[in-house]
Amino acid sequence: MNNYNDLIKSFLINTSSIEDREELGIFKFGRYFFPEKFGDGFSELHWHMTQLLFSLYNPDKERRTERQSALLCHREAAKSTIGSFLIPIYLTYIKGYKPIFREYTSGGTQDYRPTIDEGYFLLCSETATQGEAFATSIRVEIETNAKLRQVFGNLNPKTILLEDEGMRGAKWTANYFITANRVLFRGVGSGQRMRGTHYRNQRPTFICVDDMYSQHNTATEHMRIKLNNWFTSELLNSLDSRTGKVIWIGTLVHDDTVIKKIKRGAQRGKWKLVDRPIISVAELNVLKDKYLNLASNEIKANKTEVNSWGLANLKTLSWKERHDPYYILDMYAEKRYDNELNWFYQEYMNLPLAPEQRMVDEESFYLTDTIKFFEKNEKQYVSFEYDNKYWEGPVNLELGIDPASSSNEKADDTVMVVAGYARVYPQVKGRDTQGLIHANTKGLVLPIIAHVEGGKYAIYEYKHMKGICEQALKIDKKFKLKGIKIEINGQQEQIARVLETSLQQGILKNKADDSQKGVVSRQEISPSYRKTPFWTEFQNVKKDERIAQQLMPIFHNYNHVICENNYLILNKIYPQVLTLGIGDHDDYADALAIAFKEVSVPDPISTPFDDYIKRNKNNKDRDDDDLDSWYIS
Predict the structure, then answer these.
(1) Are 252 and 259 within 8 A, CB to CB?
(2) What is the bridge-based pairing of β-strands 379-386 and 372-376?
(3) Average per-residue pLDDT in the chain?
């Protein structure tokens, strides 16, 4: 084996830039031992994957919660061949060696010289069959690849007896094995029990997660929540807390997956994330504008011309040798013709929806901690900071309620949203407020989302569950509502009638007194509550169409909706509005639409000057200049 020292040394040097990526030691290893897999070379995307790997060996990262890397990437990128094959088999054969890993960052480069000592690889995919196939493919190479045996010796994998909770007895399986240099491999599927993954008290030291999602296991919110919890609570927690590392690789099958958590973690430095579409949206638009006839959906030039121009001018192609500009444009045109642009953007652009079909953007929701509600001149007022100014003015708010038809865990939530319109005026320190209002009597009109809550509710408070009636009255008291509206659909009618009675009569049921079992007392409500108008919603139009008809003019006519800084807005309302008609839930979007229905814009504030003009509009002797001087600071 000594004759191969120079060759092995070449596999250990990983310092090449993206332009010279073919010289990376890990890529040389791949081409030498597996020419049938890597004979066509490596893409820029593959270089970025090695950067994710190298970052895990940064000596400043001391625990597994700091060693987390993720690649969000398009289809047809050969990412599984790199992530679930080349990386684990490479680290297995260089165990005990000290390679050079160079990480390229915005601040320069960093070189690491770790001693590779991975002891246990867990290979995870959507199904157990797929995860086991990843492990089996590595075992086959270890057993049959003559070049590997010549250079590194025989690692002689041995099958391990698998004992797992939920199985009757134990079994021998080819995908659970240990090599002669003490490296374990096991393949698992998404959602699989992690108990039994320990081997002789050893936890996994390296987890490769490869395409854990599909259309099947993301079909409902309940399924997504269950799988997301499994990823966080079981899979990641199975890692060795000191030496553990994880690489997550996937395509954006659905936006409401662990990628949302990973993106937040990347912002806080907990994850290193590479988000790589097949081409950037900006350059796709340039390519479309130049060569696609939108009217006929036909490409205006031949393949040679499109590729000649595209390869010379487009800088964000992920793998230009395999996915040339003409291929990308032709695929876009085909999916546009088939009305499947959302699929194209999910699979190839890492976006949940096609920009051409998006009804609302996340930036439409202006979340602020500065929003305050108060009473002034016997009216509800609001104040907040917006566009680098402080604003204040009257606001008309209404409560929209979408009651759940069932308390089943998989059913929609009961959702309550307070929303409406504000007419606000700038407040400038040292300037007279009346003068500012007089200078702009119409003010600035903006939609407001003042409050959002949701969950499992009873009609009245019951044990651990909140009551719709009690919550509605609390909200009414806080926001001085103009009205309360509730949707009626089947069983929801009973809830609406009980709530209407409670509001109109001012009566709420209290919890039963323990000393008088079975006796329910009643509580008189202040008469001020009884003045709140109440409407019920009866609709024959399709629900998603009704919601869109109500909300879309708001998002199209206003740059922003001013919102309380509530996580439910971006985690519930926004994604539901975004996916109207194709999502599996619309309870939060529906409550917002109900709240906004028929809510009015506050009248402009009248100043003393305006009142004077109205009273003396026919008086030729009035002195407007003298009165106007009151407001000049």
Answers:
(1) yes
(2) antiparallel
(3) 84
Residue with tokens 């079992």: 517
> How far is Cα 105 from Cα 81, in angstroms, rounded to an integer?
25
Residue 243, helix vs strand vs coil: coil
SS (H, E, C) 149-167: HHHHCCCCCEEEEECCCCC
What are the residues facing 208 on neighbouring strands?
Answer: 123, 247
H or E stretch including 444? strand 444-455
Which pLDDT band, with edges at 50, 70 and 90, does 539 fall under? low
Amino acid in the structure at residue 501:
T
DSSP letter for each residue of 26-83: HHHHHHHH-HHHHTT---HHHHHHHHHHHHTT-TT--SGGG-EEEEEE-SSS-HHHII
The DSSP call for residue 438 is H
Helix, strand, or coil here: 140?
helix
CB atoms within 10 A of CB 233: 11
| Integer angstrom CA distances of residue 264 from 69, 107, 229, 260, 516 | 13, 22, 16, 6, 51
Residue 598 Ramachandran class (φ > 0 left, ψ -120 to 50 alpha, else beta): left
Confidence of residue 630 (pLDDT cuts 50, 70, 90): very low
Q: Is 404 within 8 Å of 600 (Cβ atoms)? A: no
**How far lies 579's CA from each of 222, 243, 449, 547, in Å?**
17, 40, 20, 11
- Cβ atoms of 370 and 384 closer than 8 Å: yes
Structure tokens at 204: 């996994």
* Rounded (5°) CA angle 220-226-230: 145
296 CB neighbour count, 10 Å cutoff: 10
3-state SS assignment for residue 387 = coil
CA distances from 476 to 37, 376, 397, 418 (A): 66, 16, 10, 9
Q: What residue ranges in 511-610 does DSSP mark as E strands?
A: 522-524, 534-537, 561-564
Beta strands in 478-525 (DSSP E): 483-487, 507-509, 522-524
Quote the CA–CA distance of 599 and 571 in Å, as a whole number: 25
Report whether 96 contacts 140 (CB < 8 A): no
Summarize pLDDT for 457-507 with one digit per residue, the tens: 888 888 778 888 888 888 988 998 988 888 776 566 777 777 777 766 654
pLDDT of amino acid 577: 87
Radius of gyration of the chain (CA): 31
Dump pLDDT digits (tens) for 551-564: 989 988 999 999 99
Name the strand (E) or helix (H) holding 394. strand 389-402
Question: What CA–CA distances, in Å, run from 274 to 47, 65, 103?
Answer: 11, 18, 14
- Of 556, 606, 629, nearest in space to 443 by CA: 606
Largest CA distance in the chain: 111
Q: Residue 293: pLDDT above 90?
A: yes
